[in-house]
Amino acid sequence: MADQIPGFNTLAIHAGAAPDAATGARATPIYQTTSFVFDDVDHAASLFGLQAFGNIYTRIGNPTCAVLEERVAALEGGTAALGVASGHAAQFLVMHALLQPGDEFVAANKLYGGSINQFNHSYKNFDWRVKWADADDPASFEAAITSRTKAIFIESIANPGGVIVDIAAISKIAKAKNIPLIVDNTMASPYLIRPFEHGADIVVHSATKFLGGHGNSIAGIIVDGGTFNWTGDERYPMLSKPRPEYGGMVLGETFGNFAFAIACRVLGLRDLGPALSPFNAFMILTGIETLPLRMQRQSDSTLAVARHLAANDKVSWVSYPGLESDKYHALAQRYCPLGAGAVFTFGVKGGYEAGVKLVSNLKLFSHLANIGDTRSLVIHPASTTHRQLTEEQQVTAGAGPDVVRLSIGLEDPEDLIADLDQALAG
Ligand SMILES: *Cc1c(COP(=O)(O)O)cnc(C)c1O
Q: 31-287, what's its fold?
């Protein structure tokens, strides 16, 4: 037993957790406290100097958040992780550790809409410059790289579902140019895809979605793959240069293969502040215990629903890589043989009006702007998230007037199919 390497299901329940040393509590306690008493003045000094690990203040260290960090690092196969307030905060802290004003990064053009906004608009204030590449064409990433490119950013399964990105092909380009590859693994979760196995260097999550899985808490995670060598690399001064914040310490040298996670914690989270609440960390941890069961069941149900919709004469097309006829089916079999996730889009005949009507007719599906819940969710992007765009822009973004997005939950698939049938007929 001692040599047995724990499997994914076991890690989802046990990684990072032990009975509480003080009380014996078996579920991870919620340490709902802002700060922690030092043993003595020397202990305090060593914590502040990064000579010892420990809790100072919940913004940069909390025992409940630490269990979540260790668990996600184990599930992804990374060296360390950092829990933060949201998925967007995770992306922000990653870029803050990598980019200086005037630097560029290359991002796939198929991303969560909020990420497209963050990259196009918010990052302008820091003069971090995004160059867009075609998510389906690895060569376009190479073409977009310049001497100022400091990172490449993609999603594994890209929003709004239905797109599988060739991580290994893009990683090959990143490695040839010695640029870290960041993968947003929110839609797949480590149960379906583990990006480090395909050459990613950093993984980020909106834990708000499938990791938490119950639509009740916002959280984000950064996972360090430990694969990128920052030492002596002048392009990344946060990791390779003496830091005035820590008496001239060079984080990349002091912390080796988990220096990136440390940089995000002690330079990003400490100074910019988007802390994860211990209560939310507890909720996400509880969700992760059933992640393998939920992802498998939700992927299986999604395939059943997608197959059914593809055969309905009110539906003009279905985009789900689990379908044999889908353009991304071969990539799905290679990257996520267990299932292609729980989010996909389809087109209703009759365009905008038919889309709006379908959403109002549905009874079991909830009409809202989230994914990855136990409850099945629906949104009509053209009348909601993408309504400010012209029709042409909507179509380019995969949010044309006829597009409906579903996130399939844990209800009986027969009930979901019956609800869709009655809504399409109505
Ligand atoms: C929701 C989402 C985000 C943003 O996460 P928040 O937790 O809402 O900040 C980033 N990427 C993807 C793929 C998402 O679905």
A: Aspartate Aminotransferase; domain 2 (3.40.640)
